[in-house]
Amino acid sequence: MKTMLIPVDFSENSLITCKYAIKIAGATTPTTLHLLHIYPDQLMIPDSSFPSGIDSDAFMNVQFIEELKQQSEIRMTGLLHETKAYLIENKINNITLSHSITGGDPEWEIRNLCDDLNPDIIVMGTHGVGKKGFLEGSMAESIMDHASIPVIAVPMTTKRCLIHNIMYASNASENDFAKINLLLNLFKETPINISVMHLVSENKKDQGVAFINDLKEAFAMEKKLDKVRFFVIDAEDKQDALETFVEHQHIDVIAFISHKSNIFKSLFSQKLNKKDFFKLDLPMLAMHE
Q: Domains in the chain, please, with CATH?
């Protein structure tokens, strides 16, 4: 049994995110998709005399929050109906749906539910770079940094649920072998190709080639080279190299180890971080270091 946590905000991207999670789940492994919606429950109380002003304003805010909760329940029912219809239409019967609706801070509530639900992966939509709202760029980045399980961020521009060509951004970490195997396990229900890309500068090319050759040999011993390919890219303009690689290899998903600080220190210059991956408008899979 596998469990996926899917935070939703009821935008049109929510159904796309659910379909993406269904694609990852495959058609055989019993899987639960748990949809989570978090509505704001902070009372906005202006300065006023105590206690009369606070009483009346608090009452109005409580009413508003209750309306938010009721609307959330209605919209969740609609999203569950659409997702069930998609499962029936595609004759998928290994997936069950569950859901929860709660008020609070989105990041804290997601982390708290992870403790209770113990999901295998988080699949969440994201609306852009630098924004701070629910399921927007900054929120997705923060979840990636703090979650102890893999997190997939699906941009709102994603129209097709393709998971075939996965790029793994290697930073010559001792964890690379384990993380690539984790990818193979996560997507074992889906035919995939993994392109391991290691960017190097001219003065570190030999070191990078040696590391990738060792990594390649390790996968050859496990007879997995039919699914994993290796590339060492020497480029001064690393952002351009990244975009070119993604285009030429027809990459559908970008996978990487998420670091809380000094992101990709060994792989990229400090100017290239998760925000640069967001700019590519591709689904991203972050794995905890």
A: 2-155 (3.40.50.620), 165-288 (3.40.50.620)
